[in-house]
Amino acid sequence: MSLRANANVSELIAATMELELARDPRTLLLGEDVGYSGGTFGASRRLFREYGEWRVRDTPISEMGFTGMAVGLALSGWRPIVELMFVDFIGVCLEQVYNAIAKNRYMSGGMVGMPITIRAAGGCIGVAAQHSQTLWGMLAHLPGLKVVAPSNPYDYKGLLAASIEDDDPVVFIEHKDAYLRPIRAFPLGAEVPDERYTVALGQAAIVRPGSDITVATLSTMVVRSLAAADTLAGEGLDVEVVDLRTVVPLDHDTVVGSVARTGRLLVVDEDYHSFGLSGELLARTFEALGPGGLRGARRLAVPDVPIPAAKSLEDVVIPSVAAIAAACRSLALDAGR
Amino acid sequence: MSLRANANVSELIAATMELELARDPRTLLLGEDVGYSGGTFGASRRLFREYGEWRVRDTPISEMGFTGMAVGLALSGWRPIVELMFVDFIGVCLEQVYNAIAKNRYMSGGMVGMPITIRAAGGCIGVAAQHSQTLWGMLAHLPGLKVVAPSNPYDYKGLLAASIEDDDPVVFIEHKDAYLRPIRAFPLGAEVPDERYTVALGQAAIVRPGSDITVATLSTMVVRSLAAADTLAGEGLDVEVVDLRTVVPLDHDTVVGSVARTGRLLVVDEDYHSFGLSGELLARTFEALGPGGLRGARRLAVPDVPIPAAKSLEDVVIPSVAAIAAACRSLALDAGR
Amino acid sequence: MTSAPTLLDRHRLMTRMRAFEAVCAAGVASGDLRGELHLATGQEGIAAGMVGVLRPGDWMVSTHRSHLHAIAKGVPLFPLLAEIYERAAGLAGGKGGHVHLFDMEHRFSTTGIVGSSLPVALGHAYAARLEGSSDLAVGITGDGGTNTGQFHETLNMAAIWRLPLVVLVENNDYAISVPADEVIAGPGIAARAAAYGAWGRRVDGTDVEAFNAAFAEAADHARSGAGPALLEASCHRFRGHYEGDLDHYRAKRARDEMVASGDPIAKALDRLIERGEADRQILDAIESEAAEEMTDLLAAVRAAPAPDVARAFDDVFAAPVR
Amino acid sequence: MTSAPTLLDRHRLMTRMRAFEAVCAAGVASGDLRGELHLATGQEGIAAGMVGVLRPGDWMVSTHRSHLHAIAKGVPLFPLLAEIYERAAGLAGGKGGHVHLFDMEHRFSTTGIVGSSLPVALGHAYAARLEGSSDLAVGITGDGGTNTGQFHETLNMAAIWRLPLVVLVENNDYAISVPADEVIAGPGIAARAAAYGAWGRRVDGTDVEAFNAAFAEAADHARSGAGPALLEASCHRFRGHYEGDLDHYRAKRARDEMVASGDPIAKALDRLIERGEADRQILDAIESEAAEEMTDLLAAVRAAPAPDVARAFDDVFAAPVR
Ligand SMILES: Cc1ncc(C[n+]2csc(CCOP(=O)(O)OP(=O)(O)O)c2C)c(N)n1
Ligand SMILES: Cc1ncc(C[n+]2csc(CCOP(=O)(O)OP(=O)(O)O)c2C)c(N)n1
Ligand SMILES: [Mg+2]
Ligand SMILES: [Mg+2]
Asked: Any bridge partners for residue B82, and if so which?
């Protein structure tokens, strides 16, 4: 695989799937518009031409039907990749996702594996309440699903390969903001090897070391958190940024290790605030470190509102660089420098 | 409304809906088997005969269709009660629940209300992975839904009336263990007035005062937690039990007030452990009290596994009285008496 | 239009509709509008053909491609365009945006999820039955939406309860890039009505008069208490799926041909001239008036303020909640 | 049974099936089994009628009422009953229980969610096409399941891709308490095949021979590459929806009549005698042998241990995860 010099993340995703389709003849791709047109976001370009309609299948708008179809394919020994276009549409087919895909291994006493990768676009780019969600907190709550949300090109490739190779079901959430962004425009992970590699699921990365505050985040918010950290560095606040990479498995050990040094945790999450990732991570950190180890903690997430359409409103509900920086500052104040 | 002396909770639920149907002619009930047969759990008995097929409607097995129908009914000015039988089936229709019912008020800038009550049975009584979930953590994560799970007869009646009367959508989760239990067999809330009353959504109740540990819980786990508290009283450990009653709105103030006195929090939850209620409540308590106020915290919930079929296995994944007591003891030890 | 609209009336309405969408598209070019704006250019015959049949008491539930349906249902243009432009004066104060349009006064709503419009319309039809009114519910979907489970569940329930529902399918040949005839099995969409014992018919949606007649029949059937009607209207999507879609999956020649032969406005215009009901001059005037009207409308909308940021936090519930 | 089963073979099989379910029911009475146990007593003609047509390479996906289908597909009785009794030796080590049965060796699975069996079967049919095999997929549902969106989506996709799928509908007149004819609009389940250009037929599922012939035809059609077949088999649910269901919504007289006139075993028995293919003595022996077989089976299952509690925590993922 070799990409154009100016390639963006959607091309990278297509190229990654190309390697997987080539590597394992039991892999196939299903979804609306994934075939002839190469994907609504261009993330499956070329695959239809190369692998044909049986392995790269344009489906009707029947998400429940084709997600359930993936269950039968997996039972038959295939390894389907299902594209849901927007993760918001998972409400149409959650039944097959959580009652079959997530539970079949357990309900069969381990007899059956569900090596299914569900790819879907998440995150905010101005498409309002029904097309802007991330939902990883909701999905992570349901046992049996792994949940992945990369922040940078290197990880998009490595985590997607690992997800497809994994013998368990993975919901792989691609940020819409990344698709059309050139690989080389990313502040991290912009060097992407041509050959195949994997990035292990369940290993967070410290993408910026720091000593004052731990910011734990994922997906596009990693980029924003790094920008905020840069700003704060100028103010003498040294922020460590942890890219969680996967929500399940959640590598709280890396976060706990970081907070053991900094004493302060800020979780930045593009998902809804309550009953999700940010609370879970705060709770696990407290459980690990106890009141003596965790001096202060804060969460910055979508404030339990649907995503509004107007940009002026969207801007105040999605964590911005300024809001991240402000949250760090007040955390530093509250939980004494 | 007056009930048989030996009436159980399913009769109480039917009687409560009867009062609501009588009180507000815009209220109606939809769902599988809710009509002629009086409900799979008997929770709508008599209503079909009294209010006829148009207001008490037996539907086909088309959950997405009739949940969406409730949206149109609500837009037209009606106040539907939708019965989903088992909350596990919500995966079939989550789309209408979370993208329409939960978001329409917001997406319409407040023009439109969605006074819809979704009743569904949750919890464990030996029916394995696809029929034993509670899922309140998943639903609470989605902004725009209120989520209610009563623990005792008095609250079943009062909270259901409040839910139906509420101008916002409510998912009302009835525990399967309660349906056939006689009202008078409950350790609390066994006195149920004949007349209509409501219990406000969003107000937790301290159902047992205590000074050493706060146990925050809901639904059937309240009963188990009270039993554990009784055991522990004999050992000199004085446990305060808080019945949350509603997950959204979550009355963390009452929990925080209690923990401010006890210093220790145990959340007991019949939902999955991670990314749900227990983490959220722990996080909010830490945020409110800081490291100085929260000396120790623990969670006891379904350990992120699907519910197994065999009773021997179910018993170890659903919090038992013994497990609750054990968790309290070790919390007391860890976070010093 | 209280008496039945003439072809000239409908031509004027279609022309205004197209001009309205031109000022929507302008927002994408200017960077005012983000997200995926779906226009119905080429599909005006259907929206304009409903006028005169629809009554104020009727309910309509539409899709991601809904602006013309809103106009047909009587939603006023200023708050409509203001919502599309996410302004405070929009239908929803800018919180819904161009795929989530609500106007309770004019009994109109939409959803961005394919298939989900239909059960909502079913609910309105059920309400009409409960109320004993003669209100009709119109649920709109595209060809792609007929492959969703919601299509099946809705038609079945409407049929067993004989509800006053018209399921209107705008078959514009494509669901994004996927051709309808590759993913719809059997004898076609309209023929599926038979599975439910329902009224079913396919009509040329680029012929506003033919469509109007068929829609009137469907509406009469549904209002009569005989159960739902499934009306499939053929049409073409002149533009990409959304503004910005490269539309590389359709051949340019086929697109040109579709515009040349399947334009409902051109067809009406030819027919008006042929019948001597209008001349070029009148028709030109209609066009320039429409353009002017919409240019003014756009200017007014552009001048209107964006919503106050405080609005981002309200309307989750009727009253604030912790 | 390698050569085509005779009617006597099928009678024996149905008798064994009924005896098998009697020992399932015993577990409810004894308190061994919790939850809602769904029996197919009265529906044996369908399960037994599939034998001889089904091949080992075929896949079957069934519902909450699946025990007889498992037997028809060749799932061995001991691990089957052991799973129903939630024993360590059960198909899934007691973790799935009586509504979640999996046997990959015999290519059989179930789901407890109505309608969800069908897309899974579609996946098997798609796999058969990918593999170029002659394997068939059989997706089973009840009459109630035909009202789910999944029925529509499955048949449509199977038809557009001409997949080797038989959708088998056991129409036992009821979905729990709701009569099929009150909630299924139009000319009936089998007639809905036309909407997808699929093969469709209704057959008497209480006549094991007639059902077998129709099922063979459906299977041949689907295997031939001509697309899916929709086979509706009428039958009766002799017992409540689940063991413990009061069944108060059906009149006792109608139930008695259904048992008297619609029992597939009694029908086969009468026919065997009429044709002189068996006499009372043989048939009595079959019955007592079946009862004995299942009594022994139950004793063996009862003697088997419950799963070790440690098993509650594994099998969420292939390897443990934090
Ligand atoms: C359930 C669901 N799946 C997928 C989408 C993404 N999507 C939006 S429009 C569309 C195509 C719809 O096609 P059709 O119904 O023919 O309407 P058209 O766009 O042609 O007007 C798709 C797939 C969606 N919004 N909802
Ligand atoms: C999606 C869904 N809705 C409801 C149920 C509850 N339920 C279990 S079986 C059943 C009736 C099924 O009727 P039918 O398909 O005719 O099968 P039968 O029970 O008659 O064999 C219902 C409603 C379910 N399991 N799944
Ligand atoms: Mg279309
Ligand atoms: Mg049935």
From this structure: B30, B118
